[in-house]
Every structure is written in structure tokens, then in C-alpha cells.
Amino acid sequence: MQSVDFTTLTATYREICATWLPARVEQVYQRDRFWIAIGLRTLKQRGWLDISWHPQAARICIGDPPPRKPDTFAFSQQILHQLSGLALISIEAIAPWERVLDLQFARRPGENPLFHLYVEVMGKHSNVILTAANQEIITAAQQVSLQQSRIRPVQTGQPYESPPSLTNDAPNLQESQQRWQEKVSLVPGALKRCLLKSYRGLSPALVESMVRTANLDPEQSTETLTAFDWEQLFQRWQEWLQALEKSHFQPGWTAKGYTVLGWEMIQPVKNLQELLNQYYTAALNQQEFLQLRQQLTQKLKNLLEKLQTKANNFSDRLQQSDQANEYKQQADLLMAHLQAWEPGMKKIILADFETGEPVAIALEPEKNAVQNAQNLYKHSGKLKRARGAVEPLLADVNAEIAYLQQVEAAIAQTDQYHTDADLEALKEIREELIQQRYLEDSEYTRRSDTNTASTNFHRYRTPGGFELFIGRNNRQNDYLTFRFAGDYDLWFHAQEIPGSHVLLRLDPGAVPEAADLQFTADFAAYYSRSRQSDQVPVVCTEPKYVYKPKGAKPGIAIYKNERILWGQPQRVEVYLNEGQVISD
User: Fold this and answer.
1) Cα(470)–Cα(543) distance, rounded to whole angstroms?
2) Secondary structure (3-state) at 506
3) d(CA 243, CA 262)
């Protein structure tokens, strides 16, 4: 993930100053433990100023409105208590080449600031600190004790101190190429490392882009550079400093991230705030997506292994109970042939009633024939009673396994992050598992109505132009089937295989062609646990014939009046390449 460096921070806060100051503070909302949003209102617009102290994504920019869910963090409430109704009158850098901004708040523009909000964008040491006018710390996103840092503790009630100054030389636009070159090449080494160690205000991403724009290799030794190479690189250096001095920034997307200087740009953008908001929102969502997917996948794997072991034990006990009739038959034979028993016998061989085949019966020599028969009857009855007790337990375990396999299939289908909907689908799965008590709740779990599913289904268009809706998880499957489905639609699902519910939306009187049905069956097979198979049986019926058993877990449904189609999941890749996705 590309970090916000001095250049990006300078570009974004100057753009904010030009378009958002002065602004009244209306609200403060904390999105998570690393991210607050301050609601601002100017004479022309309203918006949210995002401030993050995330170790990899610390930043400040105008972002999206926060979600409609409760804010349970004390830090944001403390800031709101102090700043509500005040005006953000200025944003300034506390010192040249430092990545620390001073946001100043007063009753109205032109007055002295009452509070300062210091935003320190410094990687893993990033922080947000609110102080009074006398620089006394009121609250901080991250308190730093003396045990954590003797150099610079950050504690409520203590005076605010700036971070230790950098020791590198400060870049200077008036510095000559010769002097600049001497500093960079003083200790030979990789060009990227030499630049970073010689001057402050640089970042690895900026240096790499600068060097590549000069048609050089960042890992190239300074000893191999020609006079022409040094001249080309110095021109890029001057471009950078001029952009900072004149605020001539050119934001845009690059192959690996973004730029604010126009270097290696593949797509320009007009608004730097939107660029930063999109980049870091997507990067953090992808990071959270991968972590959450790994967590859920591992949890389900462990649960299914334990349940499968339990199911195997129950199955073994049922197999043993199958011998109940055999023990009863042996007891009947023994009672019918009491005269064949002799004292001290350990085994007796008698002819089967129906086949006449010899049957060997183990005996206890200290007991007589009747007592041995009674023991066999007792053993038979015990095994029969065990079957009656074990069968419902095995049925419950198998139902639980089927449910978790359904959840596992939904996670398997969401294998990569593409949009916010992918992350939202995983969060819904996590909330479902918490609701079903397979996961423990945590302070970061969404507190909205856990019974309400999102409607960001997978959506496709069939060859005949009909819309196709596919649930991303069990909660969406239930919503799709039992609330979203219309009277004229068709419902599809892989037969007796965990997978998504699929709905083909039809208008009254519309009749889908065979190609439409095959297309839908292919997608039902693709969004099932049998995605890798060549052919998958898929059931098709009307939604009114789909029922949810009483007390069944999310995503579980039974159906009737179905017909079978054979879906070919491998053909879905062809459909996707043909661009038949409406929105995803």
C-alpha cells in the first residue's frame, strides 16, 4: 500500500484550504479505531473530512459520508464535545518538511484559535492529538506512556511537543546541480537509497517514480550514472520542488497506485480528494477482506473437522446397533436348542432357522443356556435403544454440517475483492455466524439490524435480456427467495449441493428461451460447491414451491415441483468475458 508522503500531504491540505475553509464543525464520527470523520459545512457545500492514523494508511482528505450506525468510540465524542459549532479556520504545517498538520478551530474566522487538532502522518507512529489554545493535550487517538517512549510521551494534561526534527538536509530549489549531485553521490550505493538518506521530505514511492521518470533504475549504483543521467534526474528533482513551491500538482492513477506530480500517470483525475479517498478505501477494504476471509475460512475448517469427527462416531455406533437383530437371532436359537447346551461351554454352533447355515454363538461358561440367552436379549435391546438415541443426534450433526458447507461455499465464491459489495458479503457472513453462535461477538462488529440482508446481489443479463440475481451469502439467499422473488420468477439451485440461490426475473407473460434457462443453470452451478465439475444437476421451480423448514438455519430451503437442468459451470467464464455483467 502506498503511504501518504510529504508531497501528497502538502497537495491535499492545500486543496482542502482552497475549497473548504472556513467551515463550521457539525458532527464528528469515528468509523473504526484508526479513522474519524469531521462533518463540515461551508457557505457552498457540506462534506466529511476524513482523518486517519492507520499504520499503513494515515491520511487526511475529504471522504464519503459515514455509515448510519452508532458511534461507540470515546475519542470522537471528546472531539465533538470540544469542537461542535466551532469553525475550522486554518490548516498549517507545523514546520517545513514535516508531516504534521495543525488544524485550528475558533468561534469564527478572524479570531484566535481555541483548539488545535494535530494530525501526525508518520507511518506506524501516526497520531491525532487535540489540544487547547495553551497547547495542553485534551485527548489523543493513541496515548503514549513513558514506558512506551521516553523520547516523546503523549499524555492527557501534558503539553504538546512536536515530533523530533529530521536530521537530513532540507531540499532547496536554489541548490545547484553540482552541490546536489555531490551530496547524493558522497557515499556510493543504490540511487534510491542515496536519495532517501541525503534529503528529507522524500518517500520510497516518490523516489522510485522520480528515478524511473528519468529513465533510470532505482537500484542502479550512483557510480554508474553518466553526466546525462545526472542531468535528467536533477530536472525531475527540480520539477518536484517547483510543484511544491507553486502548488502545481497533477493527481492521477498509476499502474501501482497514484501520483500527485503526473509522473507515470495512466489516468488523470481532477480531484485529489476523490483519488485519495478511493485509493485508501479500496486498499483498506481489500486488506480487511483478505484478513476476514482467512479468519472465516479457518474457523469453518475447524468447525467442520470437529463435526465430521462427531458424525463418524455416531455412524460407528449405528453400525454397531445393526448387530441388534443378530444378537436377538442368536438368543432365539439358544432358547430353541436348550438341550444342546452343556455346562462349561464357551461356544455353541446351531443351525439358522431359515437357511440352515451353522451359526456360532459365544457363551459365558459360568452361566447356563437361559442366562446366556437373556444376556443376548439385553444386548440386543441396548443396541436398539442406542439407535433410537443416536439417529436424531446424527441427523442434527449432518444438518449442521450441511449448513456450514453452505456457508463455506458462499465464502469460496467470494474469493477476491473487487468492490465494496464483496467485503459487505463477508461481513454479513461473519454476523450470521455470530448470530448462530459459531463466532464470538466483538466491539467492531456492525451493530445494525442483523436480520436485514443487503441487496447487492450478483447481477447478470441472460441472452434473452432477463435479469439474473444471485445471493452472495445465506442471508441474501433467504431474502432473495422469500422476499425479493416475484410470482412469475423462476428459482434455481444446484441439486443437493451447497450453493447460492439464483433467481431469474420474469415479467408477467414472459417466456424464457432454452438459452436463458441454460444460462441460468450454468450460473447456479458456477455459484455452488461443484464449480470445478463439468456438469452439475440444477433444480428449477417457481418460488412459491420453495419453503423454509421451521427452525431451519439461514440459507436452508426445501422445494417441490422441480425439474432438472444440467448446468455447465465452465461456460460461465465465457459469459463473463463477453461482458454480460450488469453490475457486481
Assistant:
1) 14
2) coil
3) 10
Q: What is the pLDDT of residue 580?
A: 55
Read off the C-alpha cell for 221: 549504483
Distance (Å, whole) CA 334 – CA 226: 106
> Is residue 359 a contact partner of residue 330, using CB atoms and an 8 Å limit?
yes
Q: What are the CA-CA distances from residue 441 to residues 111, 254, 302, 444 (Å)?
A: 47, 40, 18, 8
DSSP category for residue 261: B
All cell numbers assigned to 319? 453400525
CB 487 within 8 A of CB 544: yes
**Cell 555531490 sits on residue:** 182
Residues 6+ apart with CB under 8 A from 373: 331, 334, 335
Residues 6+ apart with CB under 8 A from 550: none
Task: Give me the pLDDT at residue 101, please.
Answer: 97
In which band, very low, low, confident or very high, does the pLDDT at 356 lie, cut at 50, 70 and 90?
confident
What percentage of residues in the chain have a pLDDT greater than 70? 97
pLDDT score, position 442 = 61
Sign of CA dihedral 209, 213, 214, 216: positive
Mean pLDDT, the chain, rounded, equals 91
What is the reported pLDDT for 445?
46
H-assigned helices in 199-271:
204-213, 227-246
Cell of residue 326, nine digits: 443378530
At 333-353, the pLDDT tens digits run 989 999 889 899 999 999 888
Q: Which of 505, 492, 407 is nearest to 465 (CA)?
A: 505
**Which residues on adjacent β-strands are paired with residue 302?**
none
DSSP state letters, 392-423: HHHHHHHHHHHHHHHHHHHHHH--S--SHHHH
Nearest to 136 by CA among 164, 120, 116: 116
Is residue 493 within 8 A of residue 472, CB to CB? The reply is no
C-alpha to C-alpha distance for 200 and 35, rounded to whole angstroms: 27
The pLDDT of 297-308, averaged and rounded, is 95
Q: Residue 261's pLDDT band (boundaries 50, 70, 90)?
A: very high
Given a contact cutoff of 8 angstroms between Cβ atoms, the answer to whether 120 and 127 are in contact is yes
C-alpha distance across the termini of the chain, in Å: 24
Note whether 63 and 1 are within 8 A (CB).
Answer: no
**Residue 449 predicted with pLDDT over 50:** no
Contact 189, 221 (CB under 8 A): yes
